Amino acid sequence: TTKYPPSLIIYDLKTDNLLRKYVFPQDQVKEDFGFANIAVEDTDCDKTYAYAGDLGKPAIVVYSWEKNDSWRITHHYFNPDPLACDFSVKGHNFSWTDAIFGLGLSAPNADNFSTLYFHPMASYNEFSVSTEYLRNQTVADDNFDAFKLLGSRGPNAQSSVSFVDRKTGVLFYSLVNLNAVACWRTSNNKYLMKNQGRIYMNEETMVYPTDIKVDYEDNLWILSNRLPIWMYGKLDLNEVNFRVFSAPVVHAISHTACDITPRSDILEKFVNKAKNITKDIVAKVKPNSSTTTKPITVLLTLSCLVRFLAT
Which family is annotated (predicted)? Predict the structure, then answer.
């Protein structure tokens, strides 16, 4: 039963005062709608835009604070993939046809537009579009090819929520079937499985990660709530069913494909290994000689190492 139509409720967080309530127009709210997530582009206060994904009737409703108006944009990339509708969480198997769900906004570019990364929940793929094409419905309709397919997360890798840390440019997203949260650096021009990292995976504590955010102090926050168990089974009240996780972003992505910090420890490890290999070669060639290597040998080895790391 719907008691109130979907709306945006906007507060001043410094005073807790309600600034505005915007009710979505009736022609933008379709039967079986479901507005599960919203992304807000607010680098310019007066030109703030909100993007609400409709997972029931695939679309994005775009709201302009300056115009106090909204419009509905559709694209076939918003639709669920019929081959990705089967889910399995904690022994419960079910089919969901949720359309566009994950929404993540990058930092603005030189033209003050952001990139919106998005995906349906029933999908293995990630997509993107510049907000330049979303801020005007006519422009979006006339530039159908502006929506891009980035690549696949791989089998069994359906994702619900996502969020972009604008400081590091890392896209975080849930993997609901795998009880995990993963990441991808948006500065990497290839969305391949080998370029995606696992932040955290746990069959007990990370059952159905359902929300992800990064705060203004560069901390990653994740919520898990075991929703499928509640829907298709019964929650055990003797267990912890709802969890909030937090970690600094740089720590969360450390030692993953999303790591942005210089890995001096890895370089040191390879240098030491190269020295040991050189010593072994010298010992075999001249068994009675000292294990001290000549500088030229070490330099050649390090030169090869540098070329290896560069590739």
Answer: Belongs to the major royal jelly protein family.
